[in-house]
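ok here's DUF2889 domain-containing protein:
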Amino acid sequence: MPLSSPVPRALRHTRAIQVEAFKRDDGLWDLDARITDVKVNDVTLASGVRTGGTPLHELSLRITIDLELTIVDAEAASDAVPYPGYCDTIGPAYKQLVGLSLMKGFRAGLKERLSGVLGCTHLTELAQVLPTAAIQAYANDVIKTRDGADDDLLPHRPFQIDKCHGLRADGPAVAMYYPRWVAKPVTS
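and the structure:
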């Protein structure tokens, strides 16, 4: 169902976030993430005028992960920033992501290592989308979702059950698509 029709309005700012996942020849995976902020009109910053239509922020973050979703390498780049020579010097700090698991305490570890003046607000915000992007990348490639499996004899339930509203164990979607794993109501 689409959003409702808006009242008359004028576009002023666009933020775009893109994440691409790549399976590497060495068995690791790269997640390349990018965040871009573009104003429609010229904007005057302390560092000078930024012409409308040109990026105010154009920041990239690449993490390399193993099959257990642990970060084994990280790098950041700042191609457009509001304060050149200052904002664009923080990239090396993102090596601190190495060793974090995307599935166990990632956001807390990210905050501890790179929040506030320890990192770039925008790169740190961008990093927060990486766990779910990695799961989407791994689904049916690294992690078998068992979608449409008629004779699913594995002893553990599919990982995606109870990870969101639509796939709650007691819900109609699990009853339809994963009937073996539907939570049955308790009767007295």
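+1. The helical segments are 106-114, 121-127, 130-138, 172-177.
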